Every structure is written in structure tokens, then in C-alpha cells.
User: What shape does this take?
Amino acid sequence: MGGGGLAAKLFLDRFSNDTEPLSPENPLIVMTGPLTGTTLPGTSRFAVCARSPLTGFWGVGTCGGNFGPELKYAGYDGILIRGKAEKPVYLSIADESVELVDAADIWGQDLYAVTATLKERHGQKKKPKVLAIGPGGENQVLFAAIGNDGAHFIGRTGMGAVMGAKNLKAIVVTGTGKVLPALAEEYKEVRSRVIDKCKESMVAQSLHSMGTASSLDLGMMTGDVPIRNWRQGEFEGSGKTGGPAMTADYLTKEHACFSCPIACKRVVKVDAGPYRTQEGPGPEYETCCAFGSFIENDNLEAIIKANELCNRYGLDTISCGATIAFAMQCFEKGLLTTADTDGLELTWGNVDVALVLIEKIARREGIGELLAQGSVKAARKIGQGAEQYAVAVKGLELPAHDPRGFHGMGLEYAVGYRGACHLQHMTLYIEQGMTTFESAGFESDYSGQSSDGKARMVFLSQNMGAPAGSACLCVFVLACMDAQDAADMIRTVTGWNFGIADLLNMGARIWLLMRGLTNLMGARAKDDILPPNVMLPLDNGMAAGSVPDLEKMRKEYYELRGIDADGIPRREVLEKAGLAELAVRLDAAG
Assistant: This one.
């Protein structure tokens, strides 16, 4: 349909699964969806895909903001980039005009600076929209991010490193067209209905008033928040680092993605002191955890500073904070010493060291060269059993939701096609009771610390989430509506005869396609696991003693999804889903 699903189909049809992630042959695919650029709420999103340098598997990063709609206004559904420029360049798109421009003067600039430079350079008639990388992408840090107008980020799976490997500093786009729905009158009714539901939703109201970090305090009360590299259940400082504190002390204004009534984005500023920042995008929930509870830091000003540094350098805050937490546990266990860390004391709560490490990682200097590879590859180089302290699935560091508090998230992390993922599905919102889609077959209530019924829940949540990702609809908006609304959005924009069954069938096909790509790149059942730090029970906190029964859930899930004992979708399942060519490729790959 679009987004990551269409990008996966293009990759399957045109490229080899043996392509090295940082080689010129690995394509970088920027793809919108049919909803992108409409005035329906939550339809600003787009996907950036390639084989991931961090994981070696299929990589998908998604983003809101306004770049996706602008690309559609210029007349393009997507961009496919292959090869490598001989010297640094950026891609300039203004409607029919497309050219590569010398980027020597902006290579080396941080992400905020290059965005400002290109907006001024190309903004004579209309303010352009900019995708760019920072020094982290230029230096091919394996979890480098791509910034959208310096305020929204494609963080997961290292797409910024792929962009840097191509010597591509940025993409600048200006468009003057429109995106028009196929069924204009029905479209207006659906739009009005969904906007009303967003206004009435408690989820939307919470996100608007305090941002995504509004859930941090509640997460502590449900066992959702990971602490001390996932080995502790309580953290007294959590109340100082969430949405209420950010809103009260540092918020300057709210910000919304294109055509979104929720406005969950925070714009913040630290006025003075050692963690002073300029006014800019505030840390999301995941970042508040990654540089807060992950490392036992309760200083919100320092978290805001860490977020600004990661943004400027172009680094995924989740993988960066998680890798630093991993390094701190290695330091605690004696696997790293000051002789390995450039003299730095990697002790718990030492946020000043974490800030130094961000810069070292982005520049790949000293200990930063090791940590720039992510926790899994760093653990292999450290050896001595360090692998047990890396909290990742298929090489992708876990987002900040603890499977001991919510067992379904554990299964989702384990079987995910891109690794541990909190966005390409609806498991988080369903399991935590934020929404339900009873018309799509979900139950009305799930017990977080139970593994019963979770295989079916995850199966259905993927089938709901995958088409939203490919249509390019924000999951926050999806959480405010029901399945029929989502189907109606697609139907009125495309003109297809499209209902809930079509939505779920398309979701299954997209999920199987992406899972099959990851299988072609080497993933098997042995990779559908959870890391040791997560599978050890905690002795304190709200999830004390709770551990997901992964073996039970995975067995039930494989049966529902039609996956064999090796972790590969069965041929007959792929053929029924319309993916016969994928079945042939998997057979050929053995």
C-alpha cells in the first residue's frame, strides 16, 4: 500500500538480500503512503527503509512532521537512492526539478545547523522541508538517525548511517501540488468523525497536555519502566523526569505534526546552568527513560541536554542511551575499566559521563568507536560474558517498556521483523488498556502480567499496526479510533472497496513480507528471544517476580501466524497471502 510495506516489496523485487548494509548497493528508500499529505488527522508520516547496518536485517524507520506531505505536494510517492556519490552531496527537489548539489560546505555541520542552512538557501518562494544527517550519520554510527526539519527523527535501525555511507547529507523538498481524496464527500464525514474522536480521547488529551512522557509516572506504577539496564524495579527519581515536571519547568510551547489535532510534541528550553540548551524539541518518553531510568539519572535538565546532543549529532536516543547503560553495567562488573573508557568512570547515575559519551560516539573517538557499533556488537568485542548485559533483540536495543510488566510486549519484541519494536503494531496500546478494537477481534481487557491470550493479541495487533504504518497513519491517532474508521480513511482516499477484513488481511501480508525479508537476511527461530536481563525476575517494583512465558507465547504465535519451527513463514501461508515470489526466494535460500 505504501510506507514500509511498499519499500519492502521494492527491495524484494529489485535487490539482493545479501547486500552489505553500508555498501553502495544497499538502497535507501524513502516512502510515503496514500494517506500522507491529506488533511486527515495523523497522516504526516513516512518511512525510510534499507537493510539495517545495526541489525543486519530489514530496517524500517518512521517519522511524522511535514517532510512526507511536502514530498507528495512535489508530485512523488517516494525516493529510491542507490550507489554512492564521489563526494558529499544533497538532493534538491522542487516539483519537477530534481538535482544533486555539492554539499562540501555543509558536510560536518550538526543537524540543527544544516537544516537552518538549507532552509535559508532554498526558501526564497516557499519554506522547504529538510531531511538531514549529523556527524553521527557522516561517521556511520550504526544507530545514526535522520532528522526531519530538526524536530522529528527517524531513529530506529540506523538509517542515518546508510545515508552517510552514500555521502548524502540531506534531501530538500518543496512542492506546490495537492493530495486530493477519491471520495470527497465521504472523506469530509470521515475526517470530521475522527477529529471528534481525537478531541474526546483521554489518550489524546494526555498526550496534548504533557507529551509522550506523560506515561512515565503511570509506567512506574505498572512495572512498565526499565531501570538500571533492566535489572531494578524501583527508581525514586522517576517522578522528576516525566511529563508533568517537563511541562511545569521547561515547556515553552506545544508542537504538532502536519494535520494533527493532538499536538503531542514538546518544545523546551533550559535557560541556565551546566545543561543549558537552546529552545528546541523536547525529549520523548523513550528518551526520558534512556537517559533517565536506564542509567539511574533523575536530572531532567541533563536529559533535555542529552536529547539536544543526540539530535544535533543525529543519533537514535533509544539505542544510544541503552548502549551507554550496557557499558555502565560492564563497568560495574569489571569488564570495562578506566583503561578502556578514556579514564571515564562509567558509574550509575553519572549523567555527565553519559553526555561525554554521546559526543565520543558521534565522532567515534576512543571508547566511542566501540559503543558506536551498538550494544550487541560492542558486547562481542568486549567478550568475557558481556553479551548477557546487552538488552536487544536481533541487534536492536529494546524501547522503554518492560515485558515483565506486560508480557505481550515481550512476545512482540521477540518476533518483530526489525527487532525489538514498539511502533509497527498496536500491542502497547491494547495491552495497557489505552484502546481496543473489538470489531477487529480483540478482547476488551488484558492482564499485563499474564502470558495467556497474548499470542492472539499480538497477532491481531500486528495486523492492525502494519497497514497503518504502510498507509502512513500515526499510531497515536489510530489509538483514538476504531478499526472501521481506519478502513474508511483508506477507502475514501483511495476509492477502493475497503473494509475491516481488507485492513487485517493487508496487515498480515505486509507483516509476512517484512518478516520474510528478515528471514532472507539470516534471522531464524533462535533469534526470536528476549535478552537475559529481561528474563530474570525482579525482586522489587510493580513487576516483581513476573517473567513472560516466552516459550508458550511463541509456540502459540507461530501456529497462528503460520511460521515453522525454524521461524520462517510456511510456503502455503505466503502463497495464500499473495507472496508466492517471497516463498520462492526463501526456498532458494534454503
Q: What stands out?
A: The domain at 212-392 is CATH 1.10.569.10 (Aldehyde Ferredoxin Oxidoreductase Protein, subunit A; domain 2). The longest helix spans residues 500-520. The first strand starts at residue 28 and ends at 31.
